[in-house]
Each structure stands twice: as C-alpha cells, then as structure tokens.
Specification:
By secondary structure, the chain is an all-alpha fold. Helices cover 84% and strands 0% of the residues. The two termini are 29 Å apart.
Length: 218
C-alpha cells in the first residue's frame, strides 16, 4: 500500500513539474512576442503574443488542475478531484475562442488601415524561438500526460502544438514581407501580415472546438 501511495505521489510531482515548465515558457514567449510585435508594428506577431497569452492562462489552469486533481477523495469529493482537469480543459477552450475573435477583429482593422512593417527580421527571429521552445515543452507535456493519463496536460500540449503551426505560418508571412522588400521593394505586401494573423485565428478556433468537444464529453 505504501509503495502505491509513493508511486501516486511521484506521478503528481511529475505532472506539476512539467505543468510549471509550460507556465514559465509561455510567460517568456508572451513577453518576447508582445515587445517585438509592438516595436515592429506586426499584428501577426501580436496575435501570436495573444495566442501565447491564452496558452499561458491554459498552462496556469492546467497547473492548478493537476495539483487539485492529485488530492485524495474527501467528504465533498467522494470520487476524488480528477474531473477538475476536464473542467479546466473546457474553460481553456472557451478562452481560446475569445482570443481568436479579438485577433480577427484587429487583423481586419489592419487590412482596412495598413501600416508599414519595420524590421520584419526581428519577428522572424521571435517566431523561430517560439517554435523551438514549444516543440520542447509540448513533447514533455505529451510524454508526461500520456504516462499519467492527465487530460489537463494533454490539452496544454495540444495548445502548444497548435502554437507551433501558427508560429510557422507567421514566420512564413514575415519572411515574404522581408524578402519582398529586398527583391521587389515597389510591391505592397503589408496585407500579408494581417492575413497571417487571420490564419492564426482560424487554426486557434479549430483547436478550441476539438478541445471543447473532448473535455465536455468527459
């Protein structure tokens, strides 16, 4: 009996540790993307900052959920606290829907009133950093989530996996703008940035829909 309890304690410790890693990573990416996106006037980079902000909130909820779900059953929760993770997954998905709506609104405003994009290479660099960081963290989340059967960690991992693809999309858009300015400086490519942001938002909505269905079903 003692060995089983020790094993359960170790599981909860590993879940909390990887969830905390996700919180720290996302917090760093939010700050980096927001600073650079604002500095160069890129709505797509700012949209990625919002995306990472939602991921940060999701990671924080996941951290609280795995710590709460690890508590033993009590009088108020005779079957334990495991469903806290399912509830957190549903909340995370709803927050993502709201963020996606905001991104689309801002991108449409940029399409109507385009502004010059300076130092696109800074945005490109930030997106590469984001991709690398999220690959590392999401792999850890997937691994520990599967080993411990944690819905909250798996949901957080899928958030970051989506962020990888959206970061690559923004990376591609900024690269087009950067290279276009060097090769064909007379062509107006300012529309690429808000269109990339809208692409990010649509992918976010898709991920949020699937997460809502899975969490609500459980």
């Amino acid at each position: 009996m003692k060995a089983v309890q020790l094993d359960e304690a170790e599981r909860n410790k590993r879940k909390s540790k990887v969830a905390l890693l996700s919180v720290i990573s996302n917090a760093s990416l939010v700050l980096l993307k927001l600073v650079v996106g604002t500095a160069i006037g890129s709505v797509s980079v700012i949209s990625e900052a919002i995306h990472s902000g939602v991921d940060l909130l999701a990671a924080s909820i996941a951290l609280l959920a795995v710590r709460k779900s690890g508590k033993p059953a009590d009088e108020g929760h005779p079957f334990g606290h495991g469903k806290v993770e399912n509830i957190s997954g549903t909340i995370e998905a709803l927050l993502i829907f709201l963020a996606a709506g905001w991104i689309i609104y801002e991108a449409l405003e940029k399409l109507r009133n385009p502004e010059p994009l300076d130092d696109a290479w800074l945005g490109i660099t930030v997106m590469l950093i984001s991709v690398i960081a999220n690959i590392i963290v999401s792999r850890n989340l997937f691994r520990v989530g599967k080993e411990t059967d944690s819905i909250a960690l798996m949901a957080d991992a899928w958030h970051l996996r989506t962020d990888i693809y959206t970061s690559l999309g923004v990376f591609g858009g900024l690269t087009v703008i950067f290279l276009g300015g060097l090769i064909i400086p007379g062509v107006d490519l300012r529309w690429v940035d808000p269109m990339a942001a809208i692409g990010v938002a649509l992918l976010i909505i898709k991920a949020a829909y699937h997460l809502t269905v899975e969490s609500a079903r459980d």
